[in-house]
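Now for my pick.
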Amino acid sequence: MPDFGLLETFLWVVKLGSFRMAAERLNTTQPAVSQRIARLERQMGVRLLNRGSRGVSATPVGQQAVVYVEKMIGLHAAMMSEIGDASGMHGVMRLGVAETIVHTWLPQFVKRVNRLYPNLSLEIEVDITPNLSARLLAQEIELAFVVGPLPNSGMHNRVLAEYSIGFLASPLLGLGNGLVTREHLARFPIITFPRKTRPYEAVCELFARPGSPSIRLHASTSLGSVIHMALEGLTVAVVPTASVESELADGRLELLETGLNLTPLTFTASWLASPDMAAVERVAELARQTALSNLVVETAAVAPHVERLPVSLYSKQSRA
């Protein structure tokens, strides 16, 4: 029987249509991938791949082989997930993360990964959800924590948390006493996430209604920059309130009472279906547990006497 690593390499070359991309996915070099494929073809005595200027594709025999290889890798992943030692999970996992998660529970999640899967390395890329979604579909990352659920075919989504978003400002602006009307709010620059993100579109919609005043709407891919400008009294920020818990607690920011409804953001762990996705599912579930425990802690810290219902909450580089 061919070496399992050779079969895995073959499958990723077919799926990605490129020796280079398969090498990146497997954290190895392109010559190493070429050598593995040549060795596999020698062992099986057939040509599995067509190599051409437009890329790599499976031969008719190779297409038959893919069906069996997917089953073998899927069974192996399922077996390791169910009965294997968690410490045996190894390699590099490419993880994309929306920056809201960075400002809430990502550190606790990384601690748990380090403890439960000591042989697994994370390569974390922070970006906005539209960019991370594109990278996930291009299989440049394996798992993403984003504003979801992502609707694409073959996509798996697991709800992590739901965070409300609001208008926040420094006390320097004097907006924290009573209701702030739409007209009064429009006198100040507003800043949120970039175009094509849900917060940006939500703000645009609020001020696009007939009779609404025009606004100066700034955008930034860096949540840290958005928060900093709000702290300096330069803008009113529209961000998930969970990302500024400490600033709200010590009075450096105020949650404004506007009467304007902004739909909460649902964050999901999202990944594409693949034969070896059992490992991805284990990490996604760990993220769900971390988000839920973080939500419970935050709720107790902010309102220990108020009962609230809990809100729902694997190998190279990835803000809402």
About this structure: The chain has three domains: 4-83, 86-163+265-302, 165-255. The longest strand covers residues 155-163. The chain has twelve helices and twelve strands.
